[in-house]
Amino acid sequence: MSQSSIKMQLSVQYFLRVSITFNTLCGALLHVGDSLLWAKCRDLIRVPPSQQPNPVSQAVVLDQWIKLILSYARYRKQFIIRVEDAEAAGSDWDEILRNERINHRLLPSHLSAILAAMVQRNLAAYEPPKQARSVLLHWRLPEEWADVLHRWAVDTGQLNTILTFYEITDPPIESALSGIPVILLKKAISILSKSGRAQIISIADGEGVRFFAGNK
């Protein structure tokens, strides 16, 4: 076996070993959004910033980047990531896209490929549509947001009450829905509407919503 082949195998084995720990931490973070878990996950940010020549290594790296982006987005409550976030410093994503301490920077072309893979897996959606440089992240799927939204309406006594979208996205008491983009809120409402748990209502300022008890 040639020396280059041995190096390639060792590289793949390394990626697979690191991936187990990385995926465990970031997977847990994706579900709970805990700051301590994020600190541990952040310490493992050694994911190669460029695409890998070996298909196995590239598949591992792609999965790691997707988990990292989604877990960080949930931790920071970020909903949008753009290719331009990797083009210059100063974005909300610098903490994972750039690490000057280890001279680490994700290339814009690599981020573009990652976002395309996320859209293909329904972990993101191009927003606005008909372009490929900005995505809406699904660190919760629209179906999960629908359940969160309906549970919030029940817990806060909002059933059968007409609410504006603003009252949901910017409530007086912060909730899991605080800051949710209207486009994602509408997707969640649409899902609830199909099971009779919500209805879009025309109001003076545009659109509102009314929630019902209903069943899934």
Automatic annotation (TrEMBL):
Pfam families: ESCRT-II. One of its GO terms (molecular function) is protein homodimerization activity. GO terms for biological process: protein transport to vacuole involved in ubiquitin-dependent protein catabolic process via the multivesicular body sorting pathway. GO terms for cellular component: ESCRT II complex. SUPFAM superfamilies: Winged helix' DNA-binding domain. Signal peptide: none annotated. It comes from the Eukaryota. Keywords: Protein transport, Transport. Belongs to the VPS25 family. This is ESCRT-II complex vps25 subunit.
